[in-house]
Amino acid sequence: MSSYYSSILQGAVLTVGVSLAALVVAVLLGLAGAGAKLSGRPVLVALATLYTTIIRGIPELVLMLLVFYGGTIGLNSLLEAMGSEATVDINPFLAGVLTIGFIYGAYMTETFRGAILAIPKGQAEAAWAFGMGRMQTFMRITAPQMVRYALPGFTNNWLVLIKATALVSLIGLQEMTYLAKQASAATRSPFAYFLFTAALFLIYTTVSLWVLRRLNARYSLGTKRVQL
Amino acid sequence: MKKLLLAVALGSLCVVSFAQGKDLKVAIDPTYEPFTFKTADGKPTGFDVDIASALCEQIKRKCVFVEQVWDSMIPGLQAKKYDVIISSMSITADRLKVIDFTNKYYNTPSRVVVKKDVKFDGPASLKGKKIGVLKGSTQEKYAMGELKTAGVDVVAYEAQDQVYLDIKSGRLDGTVADFVEVTGGFLSKPEGKDYNLVGPELYIEKYFGVGAGIGLRKGDTALKNELNTAIKTIRGNGSYKKINDKYFKFDVYGK
Asked: Could you tell me which of B24, B89, B63 has the C-alpha nearest to residue B222?
């Protein structure tokens, strides 16, 4: 009985791994997207707008099936058409990380864009006047200040992202929700295992919230308090 | 340079495997006790799993089990993540449009279950009673076709568990369900003690289909023929019966 719990705990490790790796991808994409949207260059703006519009408008479940299975089926029929016997197997961990990262990158784009816009334009202009380049301005002036504005939206995105990892079982990853389902089916007692999984999720999100609150306090020094 | 990087990135994402060799990759969704489920130490087990192993032995290939969520079972087969599905998948006309099936390897009957004090002699004797069924199931088709026409109040639910919950709370008089499902999930439990199976074992093909088969990609005819022969062989040589008796008190192969 108890080893079902230990297998769910192993799934929890995977959940943490997938979500953290996906967060890195999402933040990078979000920064790139926000940069593109604010760049004022028509092509970049159009691309970034297309990205956020399409991704935020399609359910994650559909996207995941489309990217993972659609992609594999496409690659395989391509190989077959070229007369090859080989079959392609996409690594499910990477696929899950990239898909979730790609989806939440779109939400991060909007969060970061809003945060950057919240910083008075004069600050960047002053930096340029001092002779700082674009990158230097971003690292020294914009980034440290935008953190405070981005954190509330970021926190929301992060919590939703954590819960979205429950979908990666669709592409063959044994995350904790699927393992809980297996355990409850085998023992025909669903509540214990699902409650256990819910508690694990709650612990994970609570710890996240605590860390983010600390971060918020750090970046809000000298300003009025913002509640997360 | 960029193209090279892209190629490397794509390459690291995928593993290209050649001519599967001797391994037969078998997809299961281990959430269906006693057919496919996992033991506490994480090993796949159950009737489907044992049958798969017996069939692999017959066709002299090694079974490698791949766990797959039910919702993406067929896409995974089409994406060649595995070669066959042996996971209690019923052979239906809709599924036959996209994948192929072997002959059935089991066909459990459905049964009507009502409270012990209800006298049952055919659908008409349930007139005015409320019977719960799983939405979209073969049992729902049967209930709509045979019971509703006899004046029974048929209610469809999203999950069979909800049917049991509503029986427990007194909103339903009974259910029509798969025999194995209803004995394991209801009759053997305390809340099912006042209920019993009534009427004959239901096998009517127009409602219940022909049973569960092994799903494979269209065009895999050689493998399909091999597996069909293997099913016949294990039915004949007693290994099917041995597996059957490990899990059930009756022959699940059906008529």
From this structure: B24
